[in-house]
Amino acid sequence: VSFLKILLLLVLLVGIAMACFTLPxxxxxxxxxxxxxxxxxxxxxxxxxxxxxxxTILAVPASILSLGGGYLFGLPxxxxxxxxxxxxxxxxxxxxxxxxxxSLVASKLDDYPRFRSIDIAIRRSGFKIVLLLRxxxxxxxxxxNYLLSVTPISVADYLLASWLGMAPITLGLVYVGTxxxxxxxxxxxxxxxxxxxxxxxxxx
Length: 204
Fold this sequence. Notes:
By secondary structure, the protein is mostly helical. The chain is built from nine helices and no strands. Helix 2 (25-40) runs antiparallel to helix 3 and helix 4 (63-98) crosses helix 9 (183-200). It comes from Genlisea aurea.
């Protein structure tokens, strides 16, 4: 059973890798936001929230959704939709890492030596440590979702701490989105934010 789980996960990861390198993610996300704006009406915020799930699992930066939420729905509704979405995405990656991907994630721990001390701290104060990691990330956001899945933190503590810790940056991005003129500005803003994150967030 374990072998089949690992095989299934490897097939999934290969598919993800191929998609990331072959599909124009920027254009797809922009088209998605156009669809939300023009066709979904009151269902738009829900669709935006759900869209975070595949993006987070695929480790695709979701900043464009946060900016798009502000642009499309304004600050209150955009923040609620994006905040729920980012938490759903983090939860989905966590669940995947704790189930199908547990062996693979555990094998990657050696690539993140600083996580060993984090793991020890989580055993003592899981909620507090995850909250701090979300507020001031010491590891890349998408990888952190998976690494935390192999710690003993409960699902409830993980989700609540993640939601609270991600709220400030989400609020900031949504606010920036409310100041943009059109969807092209949303895309350009996402590119700048993505480059900044790649430079400023440690990768190992």
